[in-house]
Predict the structure.
Amino acid sequence: MKLRPIAGILLRQFYLIRGSPVRALPMFAWVAIDIVVWGFITRYLNTMSAGRFNYVPSLLGAVLLWDFFTRIMQGVSTAFLEDVWSRNFLNLFATPLTTPEYITGLVITSIGTSAIGLAVMLVLATAVFGLSFFSLGAMLLPFLLVLFCFGIALGILASALVLRLGPASEWLVWPLPALLSPFVGVFYPLATLPHWMQLIARGLPPAYVFQGMRLILAGHALPASALLPGAALAVLDVALAGYFFVRVFRYALRTGLLARYSAESVS
Amino acid sequence: MHARTADTTSAQAPGTTAGRAAGAHPALSVAQLRKTYAALVAVEGISFEVARGEVVGLLGPNGAGKTTTINMILGVLSPSAGDIRIAGIDLAQQRSRALAQANFAAVYAALPGNLTVEQNLRFFALIYGIPRLTVRIETLLHQFDLQHLRNTKCGVLSSGEQTRVALAKAVLNRPQLLLLDEPTASLDPSAAQTIRERIRRLAADDDCGILWTSHNMYEVEAVCDRVLFLSHGRILLEGDPRRLPAEHGAGTLEALFIRLAREPLSAAEHPQ
C-alpha cells in the first residue's frame, strides 16, 4: 500500500467537508440531539426512581456508545457514497489506486469524522448530564475498539452492497444499525430477548460490549476474557467485510457494473 | 477492400516520434482481446498496438465495442480473454503499475463537480503519486488556460472548460498511454482546434501513445496517424485515415464510415 493515494482519498473528504457546512453539520448535530433527548429522558427516569437507580450511566452511556458505533459505520459508507453521488468510479478506479488503499482511505476518514462526534457527545453528556464515562474504567478503551472494528466492518459491507445493488440501495444500508439494535441489547440485558434472538446476538460484537457495560455499572467485575469473543468476532467481521468488498469489486469489474456506474444509472 | 494485416499495427505516420522510442515497449499492446456477456459478444478477439508518439483513432458505429475496449484498457472492465499491456506492463498481473502509465478523458466521466479545479487536480495528483505536485498543477493550469478557474467548482464550468480540466487531469501523470473518448465533443470549433493541436503536440513531445475515439471524421483525419474501424466487436479495417477512403473507393472518410457502419464486412471475407 502506498501512502499518497490514501492521502488523496483523505484530502478529497477534507475538501468536501470544508467546502460544505451541510456535510459538516451531521458529524455532531445528530449525536448532540441524541444526547440531549436521552439526557432528559434519563433525568426524568431518575426523578421517577427517587434516587434508587441512576439511569445516566446505563442509558446515556449506552446511547453514547451506540452513536459512536453508528457514526463509524456511516463515516465509511458516506465517504464511499460521495463517489457514488458524484459518479466518480470511472475516474477513481482507472487509476493506480488499489482496493486496500481505497478502503483504508475510507476508514481513516471515518475515524476522523466519528472522533469529532465522540468528542461532542462526551462533552455534552459529561457537562450537561453528569455522565462519568470513566466509571467504565479500563474497559472503556476495549469497548470502543470492539465497536470501532464492527462499525468499520458494517461500513465496508454497506459500501459493497451499494456497489453491487446500485446507488438506490443506499436506502437499504442506512437503517442497518437500527436493524441490529434490538439484537445487541443496547438498553436491556440479552436475557430479556427470546432464545432465537439471543442466538443471533451471540454473533454480534456489540452485544458483548453492552452486556459488559451493564455488568460493570452494576458493580460486577468484568474479566477482559469476557470481551474476547466480541473482539474476535469484530476482527473476523472486518476481514469478512473486506473480502466481501473485494469479491463485489471483482464482480463489478467482470460484469461492467463499475464502468457503467459513472456513465449511467444502474438503479 | 483490404482487410487489416498484422504488420500494420506498427505503422507510423510521418511526423510522429514513434521512431524515437525504438526498442522501447509500445504504449499499448492488445492481443486477442475478447469480452462476452453470456451469449453476447461485445469484443471478439481484437489485437492492435499503439506506438509511442502515435495517435490512433478507434472508430465505429454505436455499439461497435469502442467503449467496451476502452473500459478494458482502463482496467474497469475485466476481459473474458486476451492480454493488455500498457508500456509493456501486463494490466492483469500488475494493474496498479500498468495504470500508473495511463490516463484518460471521456465526455461521460466528468470530474467531481463538488470540488474546484485545483482541488480535483490535487486529488488526482496524489492518487497518481505525482512528485512535486504543486509545480505540476501550476504548469497544467497555465498550459490549459485554467488559472482564473482554479477556485471554481467543476460542476459549474461550461462544457468546454470541463473538457480542458479533464484533459489537464488526463496528462497529470505524463502518461505513456492516453485514452481520449470524444474529447472535443462539446467544444466549439475554435476550442476543438486548440485542443487537437495540444494533443498532437503532447504525442510528439512526450512520446505518448494516444487512442482516440471520435465520430468527427474531419477531426480523425486531422489528428490520427492511423485508424482502426470496429464493427460488431471486430476490427474491420486499419490504416491511414487520409488514404483509406481512396483505397476503398469512397470519396471521404465519412462516406467510408457510413458504408462500413451499414454494411459491415463479413468475417470470412475479411479475417483479422
